[in-house]
Amino acid sequence: MDYQFLSRTALFQGSEPEQVKEMMKCFYARERHYRKGEIVLYMGDLVKDLGLVLSGGVTIERDDLETAAFSAMPVRDRFSRKPTPVSPENRLW
After folding, report:
1. Tens digits of per-residue pLDDT, 16-54?
2. What is the pLDDT of residue 6?
């Protein structure tokens, strides 16, 4: 694991590489590599780890009816404190 690199990230800003190494031990950190297109997690998976993307990127996708209903809501309602129900006439299907 590249502790020098991690010490320069916003998460570990102000920490020396040796301090980052000790923190990683506390987190039981391990380095994982994924191939392009490989699924890292599925929605609903129980996650007990902190994940950091050190290089490359990830795409977060959520494809279900709840998302479709949310997309049909007026923009002003997306940021209100109380969700506004979507009427059957406004659904995407």
Report:
1. 999 999 999 988 888 888 888 888 888 778 888 778 888
2. 93
CB 20 within 8 A of CB 27: no
Can you tell me which residue has the tokens 């949310």? 70
φ and ψ of 48, to 5 deg: -115, 5
CA distance 17 to 38: 30
Reference 23, options 43, 41, 1, 44; nearest CA is: 1
pLDDT, average across residues 62-90: 50
Query: What is the distance between the alpha carbons of residues 84 and 54, in angstroms, rounded to a whole number?
Result: 38
How many C-beta atoms lie closer than 10 Å to residue 6's C-beta? 19
